[in-house]
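Workshop exercise sheet. Pairs work together: one partner reads the sequence aloud, the other fills in the structure field after running the prediction. Swap roles for the next sheet.
Pair: D.N. / O.F.
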Amino acid sequence: MVRTDERGLITGFVIRMVLGLVIAGVVLFDLGAVAVNFFSVDQTAGSVAEAIAEQIATNELDPSDPRAVRKEARKLAKEDGAKLIEFEASSSSVTIKLEKEAPTLIVKRVPAFRDWGRATAEARASGT
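Structure field:
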């Protein structure tokens, strides 16, 4: 009777399975982060535009002073992890364009995929 040692086969299989699960987990994490970022930047742009429009409507901000209004918009965007790209305000409406980068593990480090992690959104709000 010949005995065979199968420990090497099982160990190799377990290592490949663990590595496969780790890689799949990182890919799923990055995909989830990109998807959440894509939808949250739109919500952030809307809330910043509405907040600025409300402050203009209640005379907390003067639309004739674009530096002060831009500074407040930049501050509100930064609180939500976004970057103010474009901004336009008048006494009746506010238009804001924001950019937000997803907190990924792989996408932000690979130049070919880097743009996938950035999402932009534009929002307009009117003062009440």
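Discussion prompt: The longest helix spans residues 7-57. What would you look at next?
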